[in-house]
Amino acid sequence: MTAKIAIVFLYIFMMLMACDSTIETTEDAQTAALSKDPKVLLENSKEKQRIGAYDEAIEILNMAVKIDPKFVPAYNQIGLILFEADKKNESVEAFKNAIAIDPKNLNSRLGLGKTYSMITRNDLAVEQYLIAADLKKNDPEILFKIALEYWYHQNLEKSKEYYNKVLEIDSSHTQAHLNLISVYESLEEWKKAIREIEISRQLGKEKKDSLVVSIAERKKKFILGRMNLTEEEYQRKSQPPFD
Fold first, then answer.
1. 110 phi-psi bin (left φ>0, alpha ψ -120 to 50, beta other)
2. Which long-range contacts (CB under 8 A, 24 or more apart) does 212-220 make?
3. For position 174, what pLDDT does the model report?
4. Is the pLDDT score of 5 beyond 60?
5. Count of C-beta atoms within a 10 Å radius of residue 171
6. Which residues of 16-39 are buried (b: 16+ CB within 10 A; e: fewer)?
């Protein structure tokens, strides 16, 4: 009899736990469904995205744009979620929807540029980043993105131009210096490549970044090989003035 009572209590306990779980899930859904504030829905969607519930996140955002069809942050968030879910073509459309509402939205332009870059439409990525650079002038990171896309597209002169634009704003931008080495190598502008190697190495030492120093050293060996220079000849060429 005691064993039977214990089984009954265990069954009741399990049923209550299941009900509690169902209630919590239902309450979450109802909270999202009952909200009339697109901003609240946007935050709810971000939480769903955080745990990988992409479909639920997009469903919540669709509710937000039904309430406010011109709520650009919702379209941008849909674009980000689709990008993260590896649905890049759909991500493009979401960002385009945002841009159709607000052509000057910086996040929309950056999101679309990044998505185009990931599907190797570097020409289209550059277009978006150029617009973004006009919306937010003198931003070194946007200019860096432009330079990188031109590099991917093998427009070396433009890549060089925009990396140098970055350095005009931030002369200690290590990655721009490192990337310029490769650009100058491809253009066979050896003295400029050597200059960037030495600047990169010095910046690496100053910032205590051993990886940067290591990359600069590897680049140096490559230059030595391509130019058929001895270490002594390289040292002479690596002293200012470089030009």
1. alpha
2. 212/174, 212/178, 215/178, 216/178, 216/181, 219/178, 219/181, 219/182, 219/185, 219/193
3. 97
4. no
5. 11
6. eeeeeeeeeeeeeeeebeebeebe
